[in-house]
Amino acid sequence: MSDTRERIEQLVKSHRVVLFMKGTADFPMCGFSGRAMQVLNACGVNDLMTVNVLEDEAIRQGIKDYANWPTIPQLYIDGEFVGGSDIMMEMYQSGELQQALAAG
Question: How many CB atoms lie within 10 A of CB 34?
Fold first, then answer.
């Protein structure tokens, strides 16, 4: 399990914006991941790294443990856990998400 945690930490820390999602940026495999991508696209994110959790069961379970957050998608900005699609939507509507993304 520590190997999976190290892999997740490496992903989160080596990319400014990381979205762990079901599917890919071009082809989300669930509505929540699709909504997360819509929000990030609306914010004009161009340095996004996506991780398809459906391709790796260890990552799929490990990311839930890593953030102590039970659902996917999960967004990280500058190494910090932001939240899932509902939190992303709330932050987008209030302008907080755009500020967090612009800060880098």
Answer: 17
**Amino acid at residue number 32:** F
Per-domain boundaries in the chain: 2-102
What pLDDT digit, counting tens, does each position of 55-100 carry?
A: 999 999 999 999 999 999 999 999 999 999 999 999 999 999 999 9
SS (H, E, C) the chain: CHHHHHHHHHHHHHCCEEEEECECCCCECCHHHHHHHHHHHHCCCCCEEEEEHHHCHHHHHHHHHHHCCCCCCEEEECCEEEECHHHHHHHHHHCHHHHHHHCC
Q: In the predicted model, is pLDDT for residue 104 greater than 90?
A: no
Top CATH class of 2-102 equals alpha beta
